[in-house]
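FIELD: query
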Amino acid sequence: MEDFVNRATRVLLALRKYHIDEGKLPESLDRLVPDYLSEIPEDPFDNEKIRYCRDKEIIYTVGRALEDLGGDEEVGISDLYEKDNPSVGINF
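FIELD: result
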């Protein structure tokens, strides 16, 4: 899970910079490349791109279940180990 947290932190920082520059969140993480990230980090569980949901304002992983359930809006750092799709909230 630490790999996901580290990668999600990189994405959060890039999203924050994009938000400062553009005044909104991007439609997709692909908009961050190449100006904010050289590439979208991989989800450490399935080696696909880390998931992002603009509407829910989260970055998430498929987790150990390897099933994309759309992330979890009930986000808390202590929940990362208990959720099927651990999520990190975008709070800015």
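FIELD: remark
The radius of gyration is 12 Å.
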